[in-house]
Amino acid sequence: MAKGFGTSGGRGRCFSFFQDYAGCFAQADNPRECLRQYEDYQECLYHRKEILRLKMVEAEWSRQNKAAEKAAGGAGLLSFLPGFAK
Q: Does the pTM of the predicted model rise above 0.70?
């Protein structure tokens, strides 16, 4: 797929981020000046930071669930609902 073209033929979802990065890169004396635009473009393409945040939230939720289960004597977080009690 060529840069700038989405799967339906229109502009791609990350094309505006690419344009920002390319414009900065063309005007910059030092490529490091465009690091923020590059990171925005990469995040749009691959969602690495978003996935990392989701994993962190899931790990914290799991940790809290285990702590609640331990405090409830092994009953579990959903033990108050019918059908979920051990």
A: no
Whole-number Cα distances in Å, 25 to 7, 17, 46: 26, 12, 21
> What tokens appear for 52 in the block?
């990392």
Q: Where are the domains of the chain?
A: 15-68
Beta bridge partners of 5: 11
Residue 13 identity: R
Q: Which of 47, 16, 50, 21 is nearest to 36 (CA)?
A: 21
From CA 81, how far away is CA 53, in angstroms rounded? Answer: 29
Tens digit of each residue's pLDDT (9 = 90 or more) over 1-18: 456 667 777 888 999 999
Q: How far apart are the first and last CA of the chain?
A: 52
